[in-house]
What does this fold into?
Amino acid sequence: MINVDAPLPEDLFAALPGEDAVLGHEVAVNCDRWQDALSTRGLPLMQGVLTGPGVTKISRAEVFELGSREITPANAFQLVYYSLAWGLGRRAPRLHQRLNALAAHQDRAGELLAEAWRAVRNGEPAGNVYSVLTTNRGAGRIPWFGPAFSTKFLYFAQGQEAPPRYVILDQVVARNLSDVWPDAPKTARFPDTYARYCAVVGSWAEQASERMDGARKVRADEIEFVLFNRR
It folds into this structure.
């Protein structure tokens, strides 16, 4: 279990990149592949900068912009596409399986994604927000949409207006938390686990801000960013 009282590791504090580096974090996406895959399955087509052609880079800031929009099932599909595209990158492993699952459960997926988005907008506790998309045993309520991508969707659903409370938790981040989370599960992550993770990352961001002596406020996703890149 994550030790929520653990102090901020010195190597993470030393590596903090600043807000601009996090929001400017770009990933290359093969737009043609996405549009072809969506069209073949009868899913709503992608809108915005990823409409192609060719390969385009998208940043965290651009995906956050989608999270600031009106909460509707249609907008939720755009937000989940962009969250997935940013998370999967140019290679987009298992893209077809993920989109097959969305196509097979399209109405239900739209409802769940919009419900999770509303929970984020309402500032509900992290465990409750996560539970909209994930069962108590850590399985995704939408097939092929497990903890890693559920947390990416929740993260970007916060939009641009406020510092993030809900942060990304994937296998790389979990592995790099081994000093405070030695028994981290490799796949399923329960709602309480996610709540504790968000709590410790938020605590570390506050500790880092205090050590800045008022120079700036450290965001929780800065901690996630350096955890992902931790060596």
